[in-house]
């Protein structure tokens, strides 16, 4: 192979090699971000499952003091069931979680009318655990939304948008709550 052929091979081959390395590096970056997104959603799911398990115990405790508040108990059971069955997008899950949060707020409002219930150690422990769980959901939601933002930026920005569309990466939806009252955990008044 003469010197001119080697130079010609380098002139043609090096740009293809650089493009290949660029595509490979950004593909791996997109895969990594998508995997982080899935893991962070899994963290949210674990904490939501924990909350779903706490709610029936909280309802049963309140029922012991306020059995005539049947409509609130039935509404919470319906909202909890609806939220647990949701397997849609994060935005869709946020709608059901928002409704469930409103229902739990109504339950806690009922509890406010019963001083003996508010002093019950079991109720206080459940309420504290619910508050801790809400805090963990909020932290997991922030991490998830950070991963969504990174993936969406990669899917929109040039030239990574070309690689994302070439390999089927899609933007994801945020897990957001609409009103500020739902962004805070239920308060405990001892």
From TrEMBL:
What UniProt keywords apply to this chain's record, in alphabetical order?
Membrane, Transmembrane, Transmembrane helix
Q: Which cellular compartments is it found in?
A: Membrane
Signal peptide range in chain numbering = none
Provide the membrane topology annotation: Single-pass membrane protein
- Which InterPro entries has this protein been placed in? LemA-like_dom_sf, MamQ_LemA
Q: Which GO terms describe its cellular component?
A: membrane
| Residue ranges crossing the lipid bilayer per the database entry | 6-27
Task: Name the domain of life.
Answer: Bacteria
Regarding protein family, the annotation reads: Belongs to the LemA family.
The name this protein goes by in its record: LemA family protein
